[in-house]
Amino acid sequence: MEYQEAKQQFVSTWGSLGTLWGINKAMAQIQALLFVSPKPLTTEQIMAELQISRGNTSMNVRQLIDWGIVKKELKVGERKEYYSTEKDVQELARIIAKERSRREIRPVIKTLKEISSIKDDGTEKTKELIKQTKALHDLAETADTLLNKAVSHKQNWVSSTLIKMIK
Amino acid sequence: MEYQEAKQQFVSTWGSLGTLWGINKAMAQIQALLFVSPKPLTTEQIMAELQISRGNTSMNVRQLIDWGIVKKELKVGERKEYYSTEKDVQELARIIAKERSRREIRPVIKTLKEISSIKDDGTEKTKELIKQTKALHDLAETADTLLNKAVSHKQNWVSSTLIKMIK
DNA sequence: TATAATTTTCAATAATTTTTGAAAGTTTAA
DNA sequence: TTAAACTTTCAAAAATTATTGAAAATTATA
Which end of chain B is less enclosed by CB atoms within 10 A, N or C? Predict the structure, then answer.
């Protein structure tokens, strides 16, 4: 496999994996491209490499910036903006986990809490609803906490212990 | 909040969360409905509760069965099939993690391995591609292993230790 | 075996999501 | 200022994904 093919393969694989961490294809592909690029890239370069429109590029780069994964860079004497992504995988994982937790998991946990707190009217179906949503709430809470601890701060004791445990 | 409203809320919340674990809305909603239902339900009941068509119900129940999350039940003297979902949240998490790993994560890890093994031609861009995909490969490998260990078997030492650690 | 009950299939349609591209907006430098 | 270089916006179009519903297939019973 040659460089060009390998890069395309990576961009495409990472792009289709976007759904796994809750972003769309173009956004994931832009991030992938920047991730393996030794130098920051301009809008033009991203458009050319991924064969996507200017508008698409602009919107998705903006979203990546909102996520805190991509940064603008300005070069002296140049008008255009250069974009680069976080290069450290641990840091990347930390940011993604935090954002997903904040945007999706925490709100769901809150809703589960509310649902599991409805008044028990003594019927079987109500008891079941309360029991099951409570169980789900507790699991989600534990998973969310674990996820955040697992990725937070590189040298933190939880992650190092975890690494040892699973080896 | 009354029972009916709470149930709808749960089905809808869980449904929109479907993307988080990689399934579509209807599939997630059916699972949610069965999850809080004290008794197994028939196709007719699912259709009525979720206001979806027979075909949609059939296809998505089938997928849930493929995932190993839903089971068919037959009642003596009755022709129609009853469906029920796994009720234990730990077991549910285990099944989902295993399936996602098998369907999505493992194939990506395999691809990352291949990409990071391309010949180093000495150029900066090739070095960067190799370095970054290797880092991602290792992270994905660790995360996948951790995920599987974290959810596998209720009384296993990893999970109990984890629980203690994060409390 | 015939028939009635039920489930499955799948082409057509609908809904949703993504992408485009051109106009509007912004910034910099002469 | 003005104009050129560049970025952002957003309505319309395209692409993708989900849903329907009726016909075909299957299954159980008489």
Answer: C
